[in-house]
Each structure stands twice: as C-alpha cells, then as structure tokens.
Amino acid sequence: MPCVDAWAASDDDDAGDDSREDDCVQHVSDADVERRKHHNAGYLEGLEEGKAETIQSGFNEGFLDGGKAGFAYGQLKGAARALRIFGGRVSGSETWAATIKDSEEYFTKTTTVRALKAAHAESLDDEVRDFTNALSAVQTAVESTGVVLRKYPEGSSSTA
C-alpha cells in the first residue's frame, strides 16, 4: 500500500519529495515491525497455552500408567520374594518353591527402573509386550501358590 502525503500542495511539487519517500519508508517499516511483534507475541502465547494443556494431560496419563506398572511390579516382586523365603520352611511348600524360582530369577535380572522403562516402551508401541508378558507369567506362578494379589486401586490417583 503506497504512502500518501495528505498535506502535499500538489503532485507537481518537487520540493520535499525525498523526505516524503523517506517518511513513507519509515512509516511502512514501523508498521511492519509492529505487525511482526504482535504476530510473534500471539504465536508465542498460543504456543505456551497449547503446551500447558498438552503437557498436563500427557503427564496425567503417564503418571497413572506408571503407577499401575509400578504397583504390579512391586506387588509381584514382594510376593515372589516372600514365597522364596518361606519355600521349604512351611510344610507342603516344596512345590510352590520350585514354581516361584523362575519368577525370582526374573526379578534378580530386572531392576525396578528397567521394568518401568519396559512398561513405558509398551505404552509407546502396541507391538511390544515384554513387560506385560513377563509380569503375567510371574502373576500366574504366584497365584498358583494360593497367594491372592490385589488390583490397582482405580480412582485413587489425584490426576484421574
């Protein structure tokens, strides 16, 4: 859009044409700078607001998934250790002591951090089920001894 000097005496007046062009260029530049400032400010504000919403919902979901995975892992690890300790000391426990041996080996090889990383990998890829399969095998072994496992307390998370 061309800059027009409304106070110019006539179009034929050559006096001051250079200053009018400089003013026009300066005016357009200032307007351009202001437009860019407002555009950038609006973009950054929208970006921050979008991040806040997305990050919070992602955190809530991940927190709940991590809680469930940690609960299952910790419960099974504790049950397997307890069964190993009592195996052979209680009459009739020889059969379940042998059953739980493989489960105890899984927990010896897999730290809590590795287990939670495996659970996280499963949450990212539907094809990967190493953590779930390993815990299912341990759960089957533990429950075959008569131990009753608790379910994750749904709705107890403050982020749900």
TrEMBL record:
- What InterPro entries does the database record attribute to this sequence? Essential_protein_Yae1_N, Yae1-like
Q: Where is the composition biased (Acidic residues)?
A: 10-21
Single GO cellular component annotation? cytoplasm
UniProt keyword Nucleus present: yes
Basic and acidic residues compositional bias, start-end: 22-31
Q: Where is this region: Disordered?
A: 1-31
Q: Which residues form the Essential protein Yae1 N-terminal domain?
A: 42-78
User: What keywords sit in the KW lines?
Assistant: Cytoplasm, Nucleus
Localization, per the record, is: Cytoplasm; Nucleus
**Record-given protein name:** Essential protein Yae1 N-terminal domain-containing protein
